[in-house]
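[worker-b] picked up task from shared queue
[worker-b] task type: protein-ligand structure
[worker-b] ligand name resolved to flavin mononucleotide; SMILES cross-checked against name lookup, match
[worker-b] sequence length check passed
[worker-b] input payload:
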Amino acid sequence: MSEHLHFDPATMDPRAVYRLLVGSVVPRPIGWASTASGAGVANLAPFSFFTVVCVAPPMISLTIMRKADGSEKHTLKNARATGDFCFNVVTLPVWKQMVDSANGFPEDDSEFSETGLTPIPGLRVRAPRVKEAPIHFECRLERVIELGPKRQALMIGEVVHIDVDPGVMTDGYMTCASSIRSAASTASSMRRSVTSSSARSTTAVRASAVLTPRLQEGPHDHALLLPHIVRCRRQ
Ligand SMILES: Cc1cc2nc3c(=O)[nH]c(=O)nc-3n(C[C@H](O)[C@H](O)[C@H](O)COP(=O)(O)O)c2cc1C
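[worker-b] inference finished, payload out:
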């Protein structure tokens, strides 16, 4: 085996550190956080730094970086203002809308109307849900932990309600599998392991791509993100 390369994050360009992190922590599913502003504007933004952090009670976390000017993103501002948010799993049919929803719209513009997605009321929270998403986690804001000198936010929500489209469930099991590819080599090995390990898996491994670094927020490249979307096959 070749000798490892050594990196000291403290001395590196943050963009290079970002590439090492996101290229190593895969697969990384993408979901939408939907929130309502204090004034009632429905907000939507995609996040991939998201995971399950507790099961009893159920909790998920999102990592929300600050904008280039150091201000908080609307998702975090809204969740702090209303005390809740919804997390919606993104699937292949809506990947273009997902990418478009990441472009920084003004606070009084709703990404729902900008992208043509449909807001539906939350059942237990003020935050709207995304009708086109098959899974909604309705969350009460549990806490926000600020990390590092730039006070990046780890936002934790307690899941108080879960809505699932029955089309992505079979016999009580989720049949919506995520596959996120970051390199050609992992893509082919994933294809082999998925095929052999789970007949129920609906994962479709597609061509690989490296997620564009997004430390400098700007227009997002659809083609680069396509392979990073959760694919759900309806039963
Ligand atoms: C696929 C994808 C994943 C993203 N993941 C994150 C993330 O995990 N954390 C983050 O702060 N921004 C992430 N972004 C960028 C936000 O979606 C973007 O900054 C958005 O404009 C924030 O919207 P808001 O101000 O309405 O909250 C991601 C963007 C894309 C396209």
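[worker-b] attaching auto-annotations
[worker-b] The CA atoms of residues 209 and 224 lie 6 Å apart.
[worker-b] releasing lock
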